[in-house]
Every structure is written in C-alpha cells, then in structure tokens.
Amino acid sequence: MCGITGLWLGRNGDGDKLRNTITRMTDALLHRGPDGGDVWCDSDAGLALGQRRLAIIDLSDAGKQPMHSADGRYVMVYNGEVYNAEDLRAKLAGENVAWRGHSDSEVILECMARWGVRDTVKRLIGMFAIALWDKKTGKLTLVRDRLGIKPLYWSRYDGNIAFASELKGLIAGNVISREVNRIALDAYLRFGYVPSGHSIYAHAKMLQPGHILEIAGEGHASEFAYWSVEDAVISGQNHHWSGDDQSAIDALEDLLRDAVERRMIADVPLGAFLSGGIDSSTVVALMQSVSDRPVKTYSIGFDHDAYNEAAFAGEVAKHLGTDHTELYVTAKDALDLVPRLSEIYDEPFFDSSSIPTCLISSLTRKEVTVALSGDGGDETFGGYNRYLWARQISNIAKNIPFGSSLMSKGLTALSPGQWDALIGLVPGKRGTAALGDKIHKVAPLLSIRDDLDRYQALLSLWNPDVLMADEPGKPRKKFRIPGEKFCRNRNLDHVSAMQVMDTMMYMVDDVLTKVDRASMASSLEVRVPLIDHRVIEFGWRMPAHLKLDGSVGKVALRNILYKYVPRELIDRPKTGFGVPLAEWLRGPLKEWVGDLLARDALYSDLGLNRAEIDKRFAEHVSGCRNWSHQLWAIAMLSDWQRRWLG
C-alpha cells in the first residue's frame, strides 16, 4: 500500500523544478507510506514519478519504487495489492525473467512489459492504482482497479499533466487551480460526496473505476473501460446460476474463502475489523477457518447503546476463538477528531461514520499493518434497509396512482410536532421517536412517479435547485447518476437497479473513500474480500431471493455464516457504524457547527442559500426536526472550504 504521484511538464522540462515539485507532491502523501519513499526524474522527457511506501510484501529494497522493468523500457509506481501475483509469476516461468525480489509490484511490471497493460490488468485480482511510463513510446498510462478500491486523481492544467493518490498531492505541487467544480458541488450537496470522474476542483478528476487512461505526446489523453458493473450484470443475467439454492451458497462460500485467504498473504502482522454484523463476521469466520492461530480482531465501542456494537462483536469473537481487542471511546475522543476530518478527507465528505472508522483504524494500526474488513456486502447481496423502504414506498405510491400527490400533501399538512402529539394520544400506542419528522421526510417521495427518481430522492440530502444559485451567465449543469440509463434500458427490477447504482457510486465514492482515507491516515492497509470482482460477478449470477427475500437481506451470506456462528448471535436488528450526530449538533458540536454555517465565504463564494440553511439549523437545534445529516454536510463543506480554499 502506498501513495503515488507523477508530473509531466513536457519535453526538455526544467530538471530542478521537476524534482522539487515531485518531491513536494510525494512528501504530502507521507501518511500513505511511512516506510520509505523515492522519486525518479527524466528531465529530457519532462516527466517525474514519486512514491511513498507502506511495505507489505517483500520488505527488502527489491520492493522499492519507482520500479524499472528488467529490460529498462518501463518505469512504474503502484498503490495497492494484487493477490494472484504468485499465479502470474508462475505464468512467466518460461520468459527467463531475472527476478530481483518477490513483490507483487515486480510481477505486475514484468507482466506489463511482456503482455501489455490491457492484457495484464484483466488478469489482476486485487486493488490497485498504477502509473506506467513507456520510455520508448513516450506514453504515460494510468490504471484504476475494477471497483475503485484505490484512488487516483489526475489533472491537466496550465499545459502540465499530474496525478496523485490524493488531492493534497496535487495541491502540494501547485499543479491545479482552486477553482471549484460546480457539477461536483451539485453532486456533493445531493449525496454528501464527490463522485468518480470528477473532483471538487475544476481541473482535476478522479479516474473512474475499471478505467485506463493513456496520455501520449502533446498531452493527448484517451480513457476507456476494461471492466464495468454493467457488463457484470449482463454476464450474470446471461449465465444465471442453473443449480439449486444450496449449490449456489456452497459455490459462493468457496469463492469467498479463496478471496479471504488470498488477502491474508502479507509479510507484516495482519488482523480484521469485527463489528459483529453479518459481513465482518463472515469475513472473520472464513479467516479463522483457514488460519492455524487465532486471528487478531478489533472492534470499537461507544457509551451510547444505540451506536454500540462492541458487545455483539465480542460474542462473535469469543465463539470463533479470535484474539480480540475492544476500544471503548468517549464522546470527547470522537469530538476531538472532528476538526481533523477536512485534512484527512481533502474533498468535502459528509459521512459521519468516518469518525469511528478513523478511530478503529488508529486502534488497529497499533498492533497490525494490514486489516480485512467486511465492506461491500450490502450492495452485492441486498443488505441495505433502504432497499426495503424504497420498495414499500413504491408499492404504496402504485396502489394509490391518482391520489399519491394528495396523500403527500395531506401527510405534511400537520407539523412534525402535531403528528407526534396525535400519535401520543392513541391508547396503548408507544410513541416512535421523531415519527412526525420521519413522516415529513417520506411524504414528498410519494408524489414522485418514477421508482429510480424516487430512490435518488430518498438518498438526497439537499435539493441543489433550492440551495445553490446559478452563476451569472453559466447555467448550472446537474450531475447524472452513473448506471441510471443502463438500469432503464435493461428494465431491471427495482432492487437490482438500486444495487447497480449503489455499487457504481455509493460504494465507491462513499464507503471505499471513507475506508481508504481513514485507514491510510493511520498508515493501515485495509483489504476488502467482499469487493473481489469475482464475488461481484458471481453475485449477479445468483437468484435474487438468495440476496433479498421478503424483508430478509443477505440470505446467502447468512446461510454461510450460520455454519460458523449461532443464529442468535447474528439475527438481530442492525445497529450501523455511526455516531449520535443529531445529539452532538444540539450539544457539544452546536457552537462549532454554528460557526461553520455562519461563514460568509460559504454563501458569497459557493452561492449557497443562507436563509434555507439557517432555517434548518434553527429547527434542528429546537428539536422539532432532525436535519443532522443535511447540516453536517454543509458543515463539512464549510470546513473543507476554510482549510483548502482559505
């Protein structure tokens, strides 16, 4: 695991400027690679590459980068891990390769030198962001793994080409302007993160998952996909599982065990996150099944019952016999981290579960350098509660086709407080917390006629049409959801369409971004076996009822886990990996967030609607509405603006 950088100034570039700039860019990524770093410069070509190393496989100098191919033609920097490197090494047995070490980096480089970039990346199993310079043709090639587990930003600005694992690398080199990308801002206000293919800056982009970018002379760039979720869906539909349910579950278990076992290869100490939920428990159960010693597991607990999963994780760990460590953190521990988030996430990022993710990463890194996690199970195997909510709302709307808009207006005729008071008058009825607020949030969805539009509205934090003004003379362009057009053209069922869109955007740009930045801030490598591309592809072959059956999600994963852990430890309401954000915004974070929401630059420079934000902050603080997610998104945007735009 590493941080990589690159800069191409063009032919006959200034050698001193080149080296000084690439050094600054690479040093900015020290947290991603504290075990060493180096840069390589070719002044004649005007190109430089840099890398910070977190040594995982082959800790010797033979694994150092930038790495040169044995024939001297190629230079590579690479971030990630490839788990079938030894299989690929064996395929090169007849090529007379003079191996210098046993790193996966060297295997990738020598495969590319012989098979080319495209043929090589299609064979890789793992997570990776790769930059390859071909001295002979003068071509720079950038590659991102299929599901976007590892990040890679690139920019073309002021005649220069640059790339880095994080935006702070580009900023340190002063190779992009600070002009805000209005399309990305639109997307952030809606979803709370900046989607791949964009960045928050107008002159930088995140390379899309499963894509290759080739840059030749004069800065000519060509980007194309070598793998896509859409193709995986089509292939799954064309090769649907023909056996019975049990054979599908058995085949999935074999595939998951292989994915897990491959990710347990490391020359450094290794462990796993364990929340006690289905996904992380399945990963840990399979790890323990192939290990000859107790697996090190880590969980985090809060002194707040609604957000504390540590007890469940402890019970699972005890049953599996892992070497388990728990960290209970106070609200102060979490709150002390909050001001650092805009530094760790150098784009606006709203997901407050980044707080416990940062904390557990810091805890885990004290003992191990690599940790496996259970991320990715919800998208592939139908685990999100919102899939049920969206389907239920859709059914209600369809059953009242001519009255859904009237029903929506009727439900919001009473204020949230009036609804709570009315429900409290029902004899024997125990009140549901903030039910009136929930009614007001769900009611507008009933008036939306299209299922996919309704789902996107369900996920949306703000309506940018209300919150963001158009720039004079520049009509605002709206962000288009990846996968939406595909889902409509393929006539996918409602749940499958939601899974496609979540896999293509939410999983990549929220879940994986959260984990990558949080873990790398502590120099911890996190591996995600449920996001092995082979698992994703197999998931689309499986019958739908083995994913979501009625109100039960992740049916196949549950059946695998039941072999290792008793049902009673698993079949419980999902707590989620979150924090009591609504309470914090009315209490210990009220002043901090209030100051961020009051910053004039938020409105003068980004054009946001101050009155709308002030109204919601007042409603939230009073307790009559819960706008915690919406307000947190604006606070994180404001803190990012303060830190990175000045």
From TrEMBL:
<dbReference type="InterPro" id="IPR029055">
    <property type="entry name" value="Ntn_hydrolases_N"/>
</dbReference>
<keyword id="KW-0067">ATP-binding</keyword>
<dbReference type="InterPro" id="IPR001962">
    <property type="entry name" value="Asn_synthase"/>
</dbReference>
<dbReference type="InterPro" id="IPR006426">
    <property type="entry name" value="Asn_synth_AEB"/>
</dbReference>
<protein>
    <recommendedName>
        <fullName>asparagine synthase (glutamine-hydrolyzing)</fullName>
        <ecNumber>6.3.5.4</ecNumber>
    </recommendedName>
</protein>
<keyword id="KW-0547">Nucleotide-binding</keyword>
<comment type="pathway">
    <text>Amino-acid biosynthesis; L-asparagine biosynthesis; L-asparagine from L-aspartate (L-Gln route): step 1/1.</text>
</comment>
<keyword id="KW-0315">Glutamine amidotransferase</keyword>
<feature type="domain" description="Glutamine amidotransferase type-2">
    <location>
        <begin position="2"/>
        <end position="218"/>
    </location>
</feature>
<dbReference type="InterPro" id="IPR033738">
    <property type="entry name" value="AsnB_N"/>
</dbReference>
<dbReference type="InterPro" id="IPR014729">
    <property type="entry name" value="Rossmann-like_a/b/a_fold"/>
</dbReference>
<dbReference type="Pfam" id="PF13522">
    <property type="entry name" value="GATase_6"/>
</dbReference>
<comment type="similarity">
    <text>Belongs to the asparagine synthetase family.</text>
</comment>
<dbReference type="InterPro" id="IPR051786">
    <property type="entry name" value="ASN_synthetase/amidase"/>
</dbReference>
<dbReference type="InterPro" id="IPR017932">
    <property type="entry name" value="GATase_2_dom"/>
</dbReference>
<dbReference type="Pfam" id="PF00733">
    <property type="entry name" value="Asn_synthase"/>
</dbReference>
